[in-house]
Amino acid sequence: GHLYTTVLAWVIRNFKKMSGFEARLFTGSDEHGQKISQLAAKANLEPQEFVDKNVENFKFLWEKFEIDYDYFQRTTNLNHKNFIKKIFLKMYEDNHIFNGEYQGLYSISDEEFLSQSQAVYQNGNYFHPVSGAKMELISEKSYFFPIKRFQKWLEDFLLENPKFIFDSKIANELRQNFLQKGLEDLSVTRKNLKWGIFLDQKFENQTIYVWLDALFSYLSVFKDQIDLENPKKSNFWTDSAQII
C-alpha cells in the first residue's frame, strides 16, 4: 500500500513538472507513538533504533523502484520537533487548544487507551482486543483540540467542494460515521506516553499525541517558508494532492 500511493504521487509530480509547474514530492516517516514503542520493545530495540531501521527499509524501497523525491521528513528530526512545539503553542495562544480531562479505557499491561467501541465487552467488563488484558476506566488531565467548533464549517466545505475527497465512498463514510454522529473534541496530548514530542512545564511536560505530530510533518518540511502569523502567505500547499 505504501509503495502504491508513493508511485501515484511520483507520477503526479512528474506530470506536473512536465506541464511546466513547480512541483515537489514529499514523503517521509511517522515515527512516534505508543504503537512504535511497543513494536520496538518486541524487537528488543530502543524506539529510535527501531525507527532508524524502518527508515532505511523505506529508502531502500524507493531506490529499488527508482522513485526520486524532493523531501523526506522524519517526525523524529529536530527541525520537525521544534516546529511542532511552535505550532502547539500558536494553537494554544489562539484558543484552539484547551485544558481538560480525558476519560477512556486503559490497559495497564499494554499501556494503551481505547474507546469502548474498540475494546471487547464481556460479562460486564472491557478487555483489550489483542492481549485480552482487562481494561480500567480512568481519567487524566489532557489538552484538547475543539474540533466541535468546526463541524458546521467542515460540513459546508465538503458540500461546496464535492471533489475535495476524490472517492465519494470515503466522503460518505466521513459524513455517516463522524459528522452525522457529532464530532467530539480531540485529546492531543498524553500524560504517560514516553515516546513522542515532549512539551515543557507550562503544559505539565505532557507528550503531543501522535496524530497531531504526524499531520504537521506536511508543513514542517517547509518550516522556513511558513509565517505562523500569516500562513496564507506561504507558496506551497495552495494546490496540492495527498495520496492515502
Structure notes:
- It is a single chain.
- Helix 2 crosses helix 3 (47-64).
- The chain is built from eight helices and eleven strands.
- The chain folds into two domains: 1-97 and 210-243, Rossmann fold, CATH 3.40.50.620; 98-141.
- Strands 3, 4, 5, 6, 7 and 8 form a six-stranded antiparallel sheet that branches. The chain has a three-stranded antiparallel sheet with strand order 9-11-10.
- A hairpin with a 4-residue loop joins strand 3 (98-107) and strand 4 (112-114).
- The mean pLDDT is 88.
- The chain is globular.
- With 244 residues, it is of the alpha+beta class.
- The longest helix has 18 residues, at 47-64.
Key structural traits:
Rossmann-like_a/b/a_fold, protein biosynthesis, 6-stranded antiparallel beta sheet, 2 domains, 3-stranded antiparallel beta sheet, aminoacyl-trna synthetase, 244 residues, alpha+beta, 19% strand, Rossmann fold, 11 strands, Methionine-tRNA ligase
Quick structural overview:
The protein has 244 residues and is of the alpha+beta class. 38% of the residues lie in helices and 19% in strands.
